[in-house]
Every structure is written in C-alpha cells, then in structure tokens.
C-alpha cells in the first residue's frame, strides 16, 4: 500500500470546503468584534483531531513529523485540524510545548491548505487566555476549549463565564466550546449552555465541538437558537447518526488514519443511498472496535491503539506520554495482523485511496 496517495478523491461530496469563511465586514459589536465574519465561519466535512508526535525514549516533541501528518491528511480529503485536544494529549504538555506545536501546525498547514483550529483549554483561566491570544497572534483560524476539570464550573452560567473570559483574549477568532464530558466530568446539556451564552452574550462564540452520544441534545442545539450555531459532531462511530439530525462538520481521531469510509458514507447518504452509507459506516466500525483494546489483546489498559495504527500507516507519531502506555512490539504485530485481516492496508480497498 502506498503510504501517501498522489491524488485527493472527494467522492462527489457536495459539502463546501472543510472551512467556509466569508469576509463581509458589516456588523461590529460593542467589543469591536466583526460579528458577521464570526457568524459566517463554519467547519464542514472531516476535521481531524491529530496526534501529537513524540520521540521514542525521550518523549520530547517531534515536530518534523507534523509535515508527514499533513501530507497524509491532505492527500486523503481531510482539510481541517483541531490541534492539541484530547487525541493530541494537550494536558500532558507544557504551555510552551503547546505553543510550539500550534506554531508548527499553522506554518506547515498553509502549504497543504489545511485550516487549523487551536485547542486552548486549560485548568487555569489565565493559561487558557494566554493560549487563545497566542492562537490569534500566529494565525490560527479559530479556537476551541474544554472546561477546567478539577475546579469544575458548577452551573451552565459559570461555564459561560469561563468561555467568555477566554474568548475576550482572542476577539477576532471564532470560539468553540469543546464538550467531551466523558473526560472532563462537566455534564451539562449543551442546550442549557447555549441558553446561558445567549443570556450573557459572547460576540465571537461560534458553536460547539460535541463529543457525546446524546444526539437529541445535539439536534436541539443545531436546530434551536435560530440555527445560528455551528455544531460539530465528535463521535466517529456515530457520524451517520449525526447526519440524520443535520450534522455537516465532523471532528474525529480516526480521521488520522482512515478517511475513506467516512467520505463514502457522507457521499452515499447525500445521494439517498442509505444502505451504502450504512455499509461504509460499518467499515469504519471494524477499526474503531479495535481501539478499545478488546480483551486486553494489545496490552494492559491505557495502551494507545490509535497512535500505533497511524505508525503502521507509515507516519511515525511515536509513543503517547505517561500516564498512557506505550504498546509493546509484540502487540503491534497482533494489531498489524488484525488490521490486515480486515483489509486495512489493501491498496485501493475499503480504507485506502
């Protein structure tokens, strides 16, 4: 299998390019934000949550690998990236490392026409603000933020206040809240959060990266509030389900190493071929089922299966940082065999352009 395809196959998708930004300088809020520019920003199609590359042994940042990541992504129809989030092990990095990583992505992504959204969430509000200012200064397209996870906001109003404080640090950038309550423990309904944001007013707030299984809450946010918020769905295994309620933008970790099944599922559903769409979603599920390390097949709990898959694709993103576990070589051979059995590496097959 060729590691990098030489052509980009978009499979007839009728989505607009991954990030659609129209620059119409009209309405300006009291804070000086060009609100029409913010409101016209949207993420459509596949947006990857990229792995952060670390060097084996030292676990230092390995930034040259970002170029290889971008080459694979741009050759496989992924045209935006949510950098330094959960998949990117953001909270396992120092503030300085997070800035270095984002700088590399913004600089390198321009050559590949991949648009970068910076995750800036942090335990300390001032650190999140610092990261947000930095993202604006170096040319990121937007920011996203998860909430503080130790001193958790106790109500949606307090969460809205936190988002507002961070958003003020980057007034010209669209701002997304990153809802991943299985990790953060912040379990509010997003409809309630948007209600609180509406009451408070955050001029550059744009929407939510919704990594949760409650599709009905997602739909309320998407169709309520006069449809003004950009709602991005973050559960790869339910991409097809989210499309049924109106999702058009998808942020996921498995897009790091397989985009074809998702692009085909999107295309099939848009053509009205539900059976084909279901087939392609199921093709992705065969790989997703391996990520849970069934029966501890690939080692003890905490092994990062996703990073190992991308390495088997030929992109050396290296090991995860502690407290995650590095996959043993013997386990990688098992993973290689399992992926081979389902045709993962078959050139031109279900998973490869």
Biggest sheet record: 8 strands, parallel, barrel
By CATH, the topology of the domain at 19-258 and 266-272 is TIM Barrel
**β-sheet strand percentage:** 5-15%
CATH architecture of the domain at 19-258 and 266-272: Alpha-Beta Barrel
Helix and strand composition category: alpha/beta
Q: Radius of gyration in whole Å, from Cα?
A: 19 Å
Q: What gross morphology would you assign? A: globular
Low-pLDDT runs: 1-32
Order of helices and strands: EHEEHEHEHEHEHHEHEHEHHHH
Which strand order do you get reading across the main beta sheet?
3-4-5-6-7-8-9-10
**Distance linking N and C termini:** 9 Å
Mean pLDDT: 91
Query: Helical proportion?
Result: 25-40%
Please give a structural write-up.
- There is one protein chain.
- The chain is α/β, with parallel strands linked by helices and 353 residues long.
- It has a domain at 19-258 and 266-272: Alpha-Beta Barrel (TIM Barrel), CATH 3.20.20.70.
- Helix content is 39%, strand content 11%.
- The protein has 13 helices and ten strands.
- It has an eight-stranded parallel barrel with strand order 3-4-5-6-7-8-9-10, surrounded by four helices. It has a two-stranded antiparallel sheet with strand order 1-2.
- Strand 5, helix 4 and strand 6 (142-145) form a beta-alpha-beta unit.
- The radius of gyration is 19 Å and the shape is globular.
- It starts with 18 loop residues before the first strand and ends in a 12-residue tail after the last helix.
- Mean pLDDT is 91; it is low at 1-32.
């Amino acid at each position: 299998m060729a590691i990098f395809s030489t052509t980009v196959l978009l499979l007839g998708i009728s989505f607009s390019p991954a990030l659609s930004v129209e620059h119409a300088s009209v309405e300006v809020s009291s804070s000086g934000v060009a609100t029409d520019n913010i409101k016209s920003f949207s993420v459509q199609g596949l947006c990857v949550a990229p792995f952060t590359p670390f060097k084996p042994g030292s676990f230092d940042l390995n930034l040259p690998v970002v170029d290889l990541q971008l080459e694979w992504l741009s050759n496989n129809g992924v045209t935006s990236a949510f950098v330094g989030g959960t998949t990117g092990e953001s909270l396992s990095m120092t503030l300085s490392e997070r800035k270095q990583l984002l700088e590399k992505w913004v600089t390198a992504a321009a050559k590949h026409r991949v648009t970068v959204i910076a995750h800036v969430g942090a335990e300390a509000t001032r650190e999140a603000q610092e990261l947000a200012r930095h993202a604006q200064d170096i040319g990121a397209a937007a920011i996203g933020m998860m909430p503080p996870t130790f001193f958790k906001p106790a109500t949606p109003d307090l969460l809205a206040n936190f988002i507002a404080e961070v958003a003020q640090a980057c007034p010209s950038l669209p701002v997304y809240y990153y809802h991943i309550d299985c990790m953060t423990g912040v379990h509010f309904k997003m409809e309630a959060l948007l209600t609180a944001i509406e009451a408070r007013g955050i001029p550059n707030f744009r929407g939510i990266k919704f990594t949760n299984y409650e599709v009905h809450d997602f739909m309320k946010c998407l169709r309520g509030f006069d449809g003004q918020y950009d709602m991005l769905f973050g559960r790869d295994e339910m991409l097809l389900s989210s499309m049924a309620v109106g999702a058009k933008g998808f942020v996921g970790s498995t897009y790091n190493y397989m985009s074809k099944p998702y692009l085909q599922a999107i295309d099939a559903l848009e053509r009205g071929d539900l059976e084909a769409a279901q087939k392609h979603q199921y093709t992705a599920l065969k790989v997703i089922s391996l990520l849970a390390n069934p029966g501890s097949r690939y080692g003890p709990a905490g092994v990062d299966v996703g990073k190992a898959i991308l390495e088997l694709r030929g992109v050396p993103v290296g090991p995860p940082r502690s407290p995650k576990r590095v996959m043993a070589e013997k386990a990688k051979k098992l993973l290689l065999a399992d992926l081979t059995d389902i045709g993962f590496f078959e050139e031109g097959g279900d998973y490869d352009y």
